[in-house]
């Protein structure tokens, strides 16, 4: 027996993930070809606020002249990042605020984030079980027990998880189909629960020049507010237990 750790995915599962990845890449290439000929060296996933400001400065003129292409590119990239667990969606949310303002940015982020989470959900449902067991065995055991215990009020629990930073969103996206969270509950909790955090980041994006650090987005007051909203979402669960 070899001492190496076995790769968690089978060849069929790797082929399925590769097919999904190729589809997204083809979509991005297609969108790129519809844009005007120019120097696109500034196009890259932002990893710092400085990267984000450079991207914003270049995209502002394109957003007014090629609004639909910019929206489709943004939407596709956001979904791609969430589907394949690529970090950095907080920068994409800030960019939405910088380019489209609070109202437009909120709609864009919530729709894109919900679509990306849904894409990750269904990809995990096809091939994610061995990956989730390999990456997060302890979190999965905890999550599975909580879902089983709160099945009667599962929407409230999932909403609490989305509003608060109790569990990482990437883990929730991947693990939900593994522990049999119905997609309808997952979808509704995601689309509603992401609103508070999306508002915080999109609003900050409208004043990108004043933002010193991404850490400033979630200070003690912001985290406390999110937890307060999360506790309110669990109130029906507490009340139902008290009536038993």
What attributes characterize this protein structure?
244 residues; mainly alpha; 73% helix; 0% strand
Q: What does this entry look like structurally?
A:
This protein has helices at 11-34, 49-65, 67-83, 89-127, 129-135, 137-149, 154-163, 169-175, 183-193, 195-205, 220-242. The chain has 244 residues and is mainly α. It is globular and about 55 Å long. 30% of the residues are buried. It holds the Pfam family VTT_dom.
Low-pLDDT segments, ≥5 res? none
Average pLDDT score: 84
Shape: globular
Main β sheet profile? none
Along the chain, the helix and strand elements come as: HHHHHHHHHHH
Number of strands: 0
How large is the count of helical segments?
11
- Estimate what percentage of residues fall within beta strands: under 5%
Keywords: Membrane, Transmembrane, Transmembrane helix
Transmembrane segments: 14-34, 71-92, 98-123, 181-200, 220-239
Membrane topology: Multi-pass membrane protein
Protein name: SNARE associated Golgi protein
Itemize the secondary structure elements and their pairings.
Blueprint: H1 11-34, H2 49-65, H3 67-83, H4 89-127, H5 129-135, H6 137-149, H7 154-163, H8 169-175, H9 183-193, H10 195-205, H11 220-242
Provide a brief overview of the structure.
This protein is mainly alpha-helical and 244 residues long. 73% of the residues lie in helices and 0% in strands.
